[in-house]
Amino acid sequence: MDYKLDLRNFWLKNEQSLREGRTSKRVPIGIALDGDWICEYLQLDNSKYYSDYAYQQKHRLKCSAITEKELGISIKPAIDFGVVMDASIYGGKVNYRHNATPTLDPVVNSPEEIDHLVEKMEDVDLLNQGLVPKFLEWRERLKADYDIDVAYGWGIKGCATTLGQICSITNFLTWIMIYPDQIKRLVRCWVDTGIRYMQVMREVTGYPAERSGFSLASDVTGMLSPSLYRDFMMEAEREIFEKFAPGENDVRHYHADFHMIQHLDALREIGVNEVNVDPYIQVPDILEKMPDVTIRGQVPPLDVLLYGKPEDVIDCVKRDIEQAGNTGQLIVSTVGSICPGTSFENLRAICYAVEKYGNR
Phi/psi at 153 (nearest 5 deg)? Predict the structure, then answer.
């Protein structure tokens, strides 16, 4: 069954409900189709999409014409480097593959190399590191070609994920157990470098001073035990939040699409007030640990949205809305990116469910 909606009116109402926040009488929805989905749908060469400015913008606009018709949303020209932009400043080579998102080679291949990297990062010119020069070049071209100003500074990859990209995940998870002092030095480097990186990127790209809030995205956090997160990462991530989201009403957003229920107490303690975490748990599990949080979720992108039927998607969204009640604390979304291959039928089913069950 295809779920028909007046999509234009639906998204206008959705924009209003997002602006109104918790006072809205309608549950809002958040949907974003990233480069991996675009490449799969259009059968593109991923390596060209993520590395060639003209190729990327051409196909974003081509895909937009389709998504506007099928889903009522546009895909605008943008800078999409996948998930490697932030960690690239540490020096890892970017690898492009025709059928996968970009990855980084590890910068550190033994714990003895950590001190050298930490020392190097103290004085490095971050505007000339990794993908930053390419980002700034593409930013100028977007302004010239489409009159789009791109400001960078809303958030970065979290500590555990960045260290996993620097060392490789296997090495990081091993070394945190047997070389704790070296990992602690690398964590401190992440804090100091991350602050400098955000400050210089905000300055050079004209990030609006009035925009409050900050986001950390760290799937690898879910691979840590609660004690390891508290001993190594918790205060580092608190420091970043306090630097860039110091206000009482500032958003402190945390994303991790892996098992995270064991860390929710710690996230609450460092002031996280918005989460997109853990597709394996439900709304009440989060609210029990974080009663004041805003939840972006809890639709599993793989089991439900990619492989499920529209009826499964509708049942999941209905469940989330009912479990959140009239708190205004739910923004219906997938936990993590929308998987490549996800159908328009299932995406329309999310919208249909919000339209049918989301009026409070």
Answer: 155, 10
**Distance between start and end Cα atoms, the chain:** 26
CA quadruple 176, 182, 184, 186: dihedral sign: negative
- Whether residue 360 lies inside any domain: the answer is yes
* Alpha-helix residue ranges (DSSP H) falling in 206-309: 226-228, 234-244, 264-269, 283-289
| CA 300 to each of CA 140, 196, 274, 306, 328: distance values in angstroms, whole numbers, following the listed order | 37, 35, 18, 9, 21
Judge if 127 and 248 occupy the same domain: yes
Boundary-marking domain end, from 48, 78, 108: 78
pLDDT tens digit sequence for 2-17: 567 889 999 999 999 9
Instruction: For residue 52, give both structure tokens.
Output: 């060639």
Compute the Cα dihedral for 49, 50, 52, 57 and give only its sign. positive
> Measuring CA to CA, which residue among 335, 154, 163 is closest to residue 261?
335
* Boundary-marking domain end, from 233, 248, 278: 278
Say which residues have a Cβ less than 8 Å from residue 250's Cβ, sequence separation at least 6: 212, 213, 214
| Spans of the chain below 50 pLDDT | none
Q: Which residues contact 280 (CB under 8 A, 6 or more apart)?
A: 259, 261, 300
The pLDDT value recorded for residue 330 is 97
Write down the pTM of the prediction.
Answer: 0.96
Tokens of 326: 């009239």
Domain that holds residue 327: 1-30+295-360
Alpha carbon distance 197, 207 (integer Å):
13
